[in-house]
Amino acid sequence: MATQLVRGMGSFFKNCACARQNRCAHPYAIRYRDAAGRQREETGYATQQSALDRLTKVYEEKRTTPRAQAVLKGEIGKQRFRHYASTWLTRQRHYAPGSVRSVTQVLNGQILPVLESRRMNTFTATVVDDFIMSMEERSVGLAAQQNAFDTLKKILLDARRRGGITEDPFEGVIPPEYIPRKITIPTLDEIHALKAVSSDGLRLVIDLMSGCGLRNGEAYAANLERMVADDVYRITEQIEGKTRERAPLKHRKFGEFRETPMPWTVRESLLRYEKEHDADANGYLLRTQRSSHWAHTTLEYQWGAAKKRAGITKRLTTYSLRHFFASNCLARGIPITDVAEWMGHRNINMTFKIYRHLMPASIGRAAKLLNEGL
Questions:
Q1: Residue 262 pLDDT more than 90?
Q2: Separation CA 200–CA 297 (nearest Å)
Q3: Which of 103, 140, 153, 157 could hold 135 in an S-S bridge, CB 3.0 to 4.6 Å?
Q4: In sequence order, what are the beta bridge partners of 39?
Q5: Considering only CA atoms, which of 296, 258, 274, 288 is closest in space to residue 222?
Q6: Sequence-ordered list of residues with C-beta below 8 angstroms from that of 306, at least 6 positions apart, any chain
């Protein structure tokens, strides 16, 4: 009896009538269809593995023939957007759980209601323009528009790379541009006031975010092993804020990292916390009575309580600490390109949009320096 493998790969079997074919000495045979679609049969394979190896080789050869590639491209082009988007998302194995949730939310909220039934090979620049206009007509916010556009672009360009779309569906398309609203930056006095009434754990998070520019989840993963030099902190992972599970950095895969300057105050904060509370077996510092890692709920509760005790009514969130880090860097003349890298921004354009106004008199300062050189 034949055993079926991957669809299109074929099957292997024995032609004998032995009761226990897996132990008899008769050879294996294989059956498959060649690149032209004709059924073939071969025999004489001493072991099951040798038969499988031959089927695998034939299958790979078929997939690399021009005809097979053309069939694959045609199949991609005929797929509906909903199906292709779903398979695309499952292939993004480097996405953290939070990223998967965000993309799923964007797909379900903005993209699928408009494009789910469209075939992939029918996407053109006009279709993309109409999609942007539909979001404008529905009064979708600019931030949500940009997220939806970025997600759609990733999916469609992936389909084009794989041959399912022949023309560039973004040629000439003007993307929605989100201009971040004015940010709120805490003063140094406010940071000190918050630290004075915080728990030891929250104080460490405040130092890591305001001093090194870490994101919330990156601060949850605080670990002395990340102090790769007296003045350098290596950020290798984050703790996913809902599941409390380890996850790769945003925009990166597991094993990738970035490094940021570590001020003396942050170094002392890490060492002091470890001395007073000890790290777990893997070196992680921040945990709760019921969990091995912090989560967003832990931070939100402690942050709200600290703000109340410190008497701060200004609209400050924990993310405001990242803004403080950026403003502190730029106020001291550190290049914005370095700041973007340390903060983990994938696109420096976003860094410019948010923090360009914090750069102190760039043109005037440049004119003075150029004058000195003349």
A1: yes
A2: 17
A3: 140
A4: 33
A5: 274
A6: 194, 197, 198, 202
For 292-312, the pLDDT digits (tens) are: 999 999 999 999 999 999 999
Give the whole-angstrom CA distance, residue 110 versus residue 7.
34
What is the C-alpha to C-alpha distance for residues 311 and 209, in angstroms, rounded to an integer?
21
The CA distance from 28 to 50, in Å, is 9
| The token pair that represents 338 in the structure block | 């370095």
Tell which phi-psi region holds residue 301, choosing left (phi > 0), alpha (psi between -120 and 50) or beta.
alpha
Distance CA 38, CA 358 (A): 69
Query: Is 169:123 a contact under the CB 8 Å cutoff?
Result: yes
E strands in the chain = 3-4, 11-13, 28-33, 39-45, 227-229, 232-235, 238-239, 246-247, 258-261
Cα dihedral 341, 343, 345, 351 sign: negative
* CA distances (Å), origin 246, targets 102, 202, 293, 324, 355: 17, 19, 9, 26, 30
Strand order in the sheet with 232-235: 227-229, 232-235, 258-261
The span from the CA of 144 to the CA of 163, in Å, is: 29
d(CA 263, CA 259): 13
φ and ψ of 45, to 5 deg: -95, 120
